[in-house]
Sequence to fold (199 residues):
Amino acid sequence: MRTLDKRIAPNVKLAASLVARAPTLTLAYDARCKSRLAATLDTGEDVAVLLPRGTVLRDGDVLVADDGALVRIAAAPETVLLVRAADPLTLMRAAYHLGNRHTPVEIGDGYLKLEADPVLADMLRRLGTQVEETQVPFQPEAGAYGGGHKHGHDATFAEDYALAQQVFGEHHGHSHDHDHDHDHQHGSGCTHGHGHDHH
Fold:
């Protein structure tokens, strides 16, 4: 079984003919967030994906196998909520409430997309949006300070927090220096409490 253990940086431009000939690995969002998984290429070949922790694969990414072969990543269609609103303010309000819940959201021109959830669908309808369940690829925002879905206890939290404080200090003329190390991580299915306020 081949191992896919390197991701080519998005800023590296590969010859279109090389990428076009590469087999495709089609994955849903949850699978694209895993750094280690067994998967099957669209050709039927089984492969192992072994990437650095915290890697979130995006549609169009290219991986390198241990034998040097290239593999293209494709975002699989999955059940999502497609959210629209009659006006931009209502859509922004919906995005605010989803962000306050740390919900991965794809933001597009006039729409939001999120993983299907009946409770969130109800909340969004109460906010005045139109919510439709549909099957399409899902590619949520990567996060303000890099990387994928972040939570206050991720391995990169200290770096992200330091960067956020640096940006805040540059704009407001002061800094906030103290350590926020945590020893555990959360996946997208984390359900235990986090002990922090949502404002």
In short: Residues 147-156, 178-199 have pLDDT under 50 and may be disordered. The beta strands are 2-7, 24-27, 36-40, 46-50, 62-65, 70-75, 77-84, 106-108, 111-115, 130-137.
